[in-house]
UniProtKB/TrEMBL annotation:
Residues 7-124 form the Response regulatory domain. It comes from the Bacteria. SMART domains: REC. The keyword Acyltransferase does not apply. This is CheY-like chemotaxis protein.
Length: 198
C-alpha cells in the first residue's frame, strides 16, 4: 500500500465513473488527494495552479477530446504521468496514437474492477520518484512563467517603441510643415536689417 499523499487530477464528466475510479485508486494509494474536473478550462487552471503527480483522463469529454487534454498537459506539465481511463479506445491504432502523443498508458473502463492493479505500477513509480520530480516540475513551472513574463515585457516594449516611433514621425512631419510654411531666406534677411527708428 502506498502511503504518500499523491496528487491526482482526474478529468471525467461521468459521476459514476468518478466514484468507481476513486475507489480503485484508494485500494492502492490510501492517502491520494484526488481532484476532479470535467471541462478543459477548469483543467488548465488546476494544472497551472497546483501541478499533480498523475493525470487520469477520459478520452471523450463534452468540451474537448482526450488528445486536447493530453496536449495541454504536454505543454504545461510535461513531466507528469498521464493515463487515459476510457471506454472509447477499442481501436489498437487509436490506442497507439495516444502513446505516441505522450500518454504513459491507457486502461479500458470495462476492466474497472482491475483498475487498481493496472494503476499500481504507475503509482509506485510516482511515489518512488516523487521527491526527485517535484523540484524538476517546480523549475519547469517557474521557467514557463519566466518565458511568459519575458513575452509580455517584449510585447509592451515593442508597443512603447511603436508609440515613440509614431511620436518621432509626428515631430518630423511638424518640422517639415514649419519649414515649408516659412521662407527662411526672407526671415534671415529681416533679421539682418537694422531696426527702423520711427
Amino acid at each position: 500500500m502506498i502511503t504518500e499523499a499523491l496528487k491526482i487530477l482526474m478529468v471525467e464528466d461521468n459521476p459514476t465513473d468518478v466514484t468507481l475510479i476513486r475507489r480503485e485508486v484508494f485500494k492502492v494509494a490510501e492517502n491520494a488527494q484526488i481532484t476532479v474536473c470535467n471541462n478543459h478550462s477548469d483543467y488548465k487552471n488546476k494544472l497551472v495552479g497546483n501541478p499533480p503527480d498523475l493525470i487520469i483522463s477520459d478520452y471523450n469529454l463534452p468540451t474537448s477530446s482526450g488528445l486536447e487534454i493530453l496536449e495541454t498537459a504536454q505543454r504545461l506539465v510535461p513531466s507528469v504521468t498521464f493515463i487515459f481511463i476510457t471506454g472509447t479506445i477499442n481501436d489498437e491504432e487509436l490506442a497507439a496514437d495516444t502513446i505516441l502523443n505522450g500518454a504513459s498508458g491507457y486502461i479500458l473502463k470495462k476492466n474497472i474492477s482491475l483498475l487498481h492493479k493496472k494503476l499500481e505500477p504507475y503509482l509506485n513509480a510516482i511515489a518512488k520518484n516523487g521527491p526527485m520530480m517535484h523540484p524538476v516540475r517546480k523549475k519547469i513551472v517557474e521557467s514557463k512563467k519566466l518565458v511568459k513574463d519575458i513575452e509580455v515585457f517584449l510585447e509592451n516594449f515593442s508597443r512603447e517603441n511603436m508609440s515613440h516611433r509614431e511620436g518621432m514621425l509626428k515631430i518630423q512631419e511638424d518640422l517639415k510643415r514649419l519649414k515649408s510654411g516659412y521662407d527662411f531666406k526672407t526671415l534671415k534677411e529681416a533679421d539682418s536689417k537694422p531696426p527702423s527708428r520711427d
